[in-house]
Write a structure and sequence with these properties.
This protein has 418 residues and is α/β, with parallel strands linked by helices. The chain folds into three domains: 7-125, NAD(P)-binding Rossmann-like Domain (Rossmann fold, 3-Layer(aba) Sandwich), CATH 3.40.50; 134-293, Dihydrodipicolinate Reductase, domain 2 (2-Layer Sandwich); 336-416, 2-Layer Sandwich (Alpha-Beta Plaits). Helices cover 33% and strands 26% of the residues. The chain is built from 15 helices and 16 strands. It has a six-stranded parallel sheet with strand order 3-2-1-4-5-6, sandwiched between helices. Strands 8-10-9-7-11-12 form a six-stranded mixed sheet. A four-stranded antiparallel sheet has the order 14-15-13-16. Strand 9 and strand 10 form a beta hairpin. The longest helix is centred in the middle third of the chain and has 15 residues, at 194-208. The chain is globular, with a radius of gyration of 23 Å. The protein binds L-homoserine. L-homoserine (HSE) is lined by residues 128, 153-155, 182-184, 190, 195, 295-296. L-homoserine binds at residues 128, 153-155, 182-184, 190, 195, 295-296.
């Protein structure tokens, strides 16, 4: 094994993470990795690195045969697609943090790695500094993984912490998340849950070997969460968190979603605040394990990129073990979710979509109900994402099977309430 392989890096992007990586690499000379060239989009911006590194021409990296590692840290997923696919086709190892690119083009990117026999590593694309992908790939290389769930978007967790614990306004909290370099350039990707569902798509490959697409998965963000929801949460000593979850159902298929959820004080995720991320893994015999770390920001994200670069020295690559060596399972939306829905006008709530409604609380400005709804009905409708409606999962939301007599009984009990 060539443990001292010289790595000559072509870096795309010198933003929050790119500059972080540049600084970190300067502090780790033992790595035997040097940046040769940095491609940037805006040449007029002041950069904290010598001018001779920079160019606007992608080909100065892609056509340079002495560069054997391309590190792609730009936020334009389309430009990133060209860079990453071209680099792989030229036989260069690629490290990327671009979750949008990876989630949307998984199949193609997997095929290219195989065809050109080059490593493509992207630990930094999911949960920032937490080494979750390599762990899922190497350590949880078996069929016993019951679920992977947690907080995988730092910006929304930061915003929720600021608005509910520190009483900062949403707009101000978002601005802070942007200034600290946590948010995407288009922060609606964070707020609407798109960044989190991109990350869930990547987790699904390494946890279960499932190649999905973010567009096919059930998701929402924190856009509709209200102060009144936080008050309900506080009364019950819950926190509201944006949770990404992949969980094995009794039939072996996988439930997968990103939705806001009430979490109870006796769970690890309850205490994950600000830009921190947390992931709970449940597996057959080890029960629960918890990964915790910074999920966004310059150095934490760059540290995961650094770890990938370091892994290239010994020619590490993902083997996609679950996909290639196990019986691959599939996503199922055939399960129920127990949800809390708050609203300003009951007319906008599709009551008939629920199997049953078991609580109703009328308020002066907003009211809420708690009910059970089939996941497919959420996936195939968007009334619950409309302005004025806030849907939050209850602490143990997944119900696999319901008995018809439950529905009848509960409906009778509640007849006339709503
Ligand atoms: N915008 C992302 C987040 C950056 O807030 O989690 C890290 O992927």
């Amino acid at each position: 094994m060539s443990t001292h392989k010289q790595l000559t890096i072509g870096l795309f992007g010198f933003g929050v993470v790119g500059e972080g990586l540049y600084k970190i690499l300067k502090q780790t000379p033992s790595l035997n990795a040097t940046i040769k060239r940095i491609v940037i989009k805006h040449p007029d911006k002041k950069r904290n690195a010598p001018a001779e590194y920079f160019t606007q021409l992608a080909d100065e990296i892609l056509n340079d045969e002495s560069i054997n590692v391309v590190v792609e840290l730009i936020d334009d997923a389309e430009a990133a697609h060209y860079i990453v696919t071209t680099a792989l086709k030229k036989g260069k190892a690629v490290v990327s943090a671009n979750k949008k690119l990876i989630a949307e083009h998984l199949e193609e990117l997997l095929a290219l790695q195989e065809q050109y026999n080059v490593p493509f590593l992207y630990e930094a694309s999911v949960a920032g500094s937490i080494p979750i992908l390599r762990n899922l790939e190497e350590y949880y290389d078996n069929d016993l993984l019951q679920s992977v769930s947690g907080i995988v978007n730092g910006s929304t967790n930061f915003i929720l912490t600021k608005i509910f614990q520190e009483k900062v306004e949403f707009v101000e909290a978002l601005l802070q998340a942007q200034q600290l370099g946590f948010a995407e350039s288009n922060p609606s990707l964070d707020v609407l849950g798109i960044d989190a569902v991109n990350k869930l798509t990547i987790l699904l490959v390494h946890a279960y070997g499932i190649i999905s697409n973010p567009k096919k998965l059930l998701y929402s963000g924190i856009q509709n969460i209200q102060l009144t929801d936080a008050k309900v949460a506080a009364e019950k000593d819950y926190q509201i968190k944006l949770i990404a979850k992949a969980s094995k159902l009794k039939n072996g298929k996988i439930a997968a979603y990103v939705l806001p959820q009430f979490v109870t004080a006796d769970t690890q995720l309850y205490n994950v605040a600000n830009e921190y991320n947390g992931i709970v893994i449940e597996s057959g015999f080890s029960d629960k394990q918890f990964f915790y770390g910074k999920g966004a920001g310059s150095f934490p994200t760059a540290s995961a990129v650094l770890s990938d670069i370091s892994a290239l020295r010994y020619e590490y690559r993902y083997e996609y073990k679950k996909k290639n060596h196990h019986q691959v399972t599939e996503i199922s939306n055939d399960y129920y979710l127990k949800v809390y829905v708050s609203f300003d006008n009951i007319k906008n709530v599709r009551k008939d979509a629920f199997e049953w409604i078991e609580e109703y609380h009328g308020g002066q400005q907003r009211s809420y109900l708690v009910g059970v709804i089939h996941a497919e009905k959420l996936l195939n409708s968007d009334w619950w994402k409309q302005h004025g409606i806030s849907l939050i999962l209850t602490p143990e939301p997944i119900i696999e099977n319901i008995e018809y007599r439950d529905v009848q009984k509960r409906s009778l009990e509640l007849a006339g309430v709503v």
